Amino acid sequence: MSEHDDLLALTEEIFNNICIKLKRKMSAFSELPIQECSHAPDMRLDPVSIPSFDGQPSNWLAFNDMFETLVHNRSDLQPTYKLGKLRQYVKAENVPLVGGLYTGGYEEVWAELKQRYDNPRTLSEHHVQHLLDLPTHPSESRATLLNFVDSVRNSFRALELMNVPVKQWDAIAVPLLLPKLPIVTRTEWGMSLKSNEIPKMEEVIMFVERRAANLPTSSPIVPHISSGRTSSRVVKAHLTMNSGKILNPLVASDKATNCPSCNEFHRITKCQTFRNLQLDGRWDLVKQASLCFNCLKAGHRNRDCLSGLCLNCQQKHNTLLCRRPQQRSVEGTFSRFTPGASATTPIVSQE
């Protein structure tokens, strides 16, 4: 028994020593300041801002929904505070109703604002007219196609919020909006149809959006015209125009268009403003307008041009761009050369 008693006493002594050490350790930790460490991310969101209303009917629905949700429908806000918020987000220079002299309380001003702009007839006419005002036969570019998609979807969404049955407009909307697409896109859409069923407007939008995603983001696509090795050297690139005529692009450019120099309706070779420029200024303007250096027309490159050569040096550039001094004078073609005249003296270009 004595051995057991000795073993028990030793065990108790070891246990007591361990307890004493643990108490010392715990007391040391308890004296340290308690720091709250939170590794959770700050999930607070920025407050939702109300869009400003500038008096345009197309912006009314977005402003009305946000203002009613964040200000008008709240019962804990005073009418004077609501009126201040209304004047903060509605531009007084465009909507004098809410600015200037005090014309009544919040309820009166809000009711008059709703009566003026929350008008389904006016809003529907505005959104439909916005679609009809899209340019006809625009240039083939990614920005043009995306603008078409955004305009159609925004207007249709706004009309749908006013309970207008836009989903039943396919038979009317598709023929009306197809001319608002570039000619190549419209042609490819027609080639993609596999049945005689009336196409859905949503199908047209999805097709245009896919095509926009595959176009470059830089400049509009201009049909490339390459010169063939035929005896007549005539380049035939047919473009279907709105009038139904088939034109050669090199011939079509002979018609008068807006002059890139003065924006008047005439050829640049007839422009006095262009003729009065220095020679370097003429070259810079032709480069910026992407014109042919030989005939000063758009739609093709200098090496594909079928016009004649410079009447002064017989090189392939327009006479108005010739850097060599005038060598000879042709009646009705050149201005008379006088001693001391510079090479930039306006002369008549070859037609």
TrEMBL record:
It comes from the Eukaryota. Residues 292-305 form the CCHC-type domain. Keywords: Metal-binding, Zinc, Zinc-finger. InterPro entries: DUF1759, Znf_CCHC, Znf_CCHC_sf. PROSITE patterns: ZF_CCHC. Pfam families: DUF1759 (PF03564). This is Uncharacterized protein LOC125777645. The lineage of its organism: Eukaryota, Metazoa, Ecdysozoa, Arthropoda, Hexapoda.
